[in-house]
């Protein structure tokens, strides 16, 4: 199955400063900004487009339970994950299982933009956090 980079997730401490950098220095365009308090997310999300490429800025809203807060505490701010768009997430999950690649089942969800997503187990991806996603209801 073909995979294409959908977006890059960046963990940030200061959303306003980060938006300023991506808009005023890199020439990005603000697409959306929202807060997700869903369990296992607990983050402010800002979506930007820089010359046709999508960037998600992620700032924790709960420093005790947010995975972004945990990431920043362990590794510091910076690239959090790379998301690959697949044609069909269900088919991609079957392929991953056949290849012996585990996923983090509790991360399976649909976001406010209709993107279905799941994270692969970093133990099987050489330590990189990888998201697979599709947009089943978006044409």
Automatic annotation (TrEMBL):
SUPFAM superfamilies found in the cross-reference section: Glyoxalase/Bleomycin resistance protein/Dihydroxybiphenyl dioxygenase
Keywords, comma-separated and alphabetical: Metal-binding
One GO MF term: methylmalonyl-CoA epimerase activity
GO annotation terms (biological process): L-methylmalonyl-CoA metabolic process
Signal peptide: none
Keyword Metal-binding: yes
Repeat recorded as keyword: no
Annotated ranges, domain VOC: 4-135
One Pfam family it belongs to: Glyoxalase_4
Entry similarity comment: Belongs to the methylmalonyl-CoA epimerase family.
Listed name of the protein: Methylmalonyl-CoA epimerase
Organism: Mesobacillus persicus
């Amino acid at each position: 199955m073909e995979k294409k980079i959908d977006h890059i997730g960046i963990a940030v401490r200061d959303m306003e400063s980060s938006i300023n950098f991506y808009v005023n220095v890199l020439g990005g365009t603000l697409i959306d900004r929202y807060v997700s308090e869903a369990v296992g997310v607990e983050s402010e999300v800002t979506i930007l487009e820089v010359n046709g490429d999508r960037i998600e800025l992620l700032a924790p809203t709960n420093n005790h339970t947010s995975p972004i807060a945990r990431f920043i505490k362990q590794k510091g701010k910076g690239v959090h994950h790379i998301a690959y768009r697949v044609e069909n997430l269900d088919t991609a999950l079957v392929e991953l299982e056949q290849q012996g690649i585990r996923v983090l089942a509790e991360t399976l969800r649909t976001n406010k933009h209709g993107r279905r997503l799941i994270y692969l187990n970093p133990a099987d991806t050489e330590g990189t956090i990888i998201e697979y996603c599709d947009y089943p209801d978006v044409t």
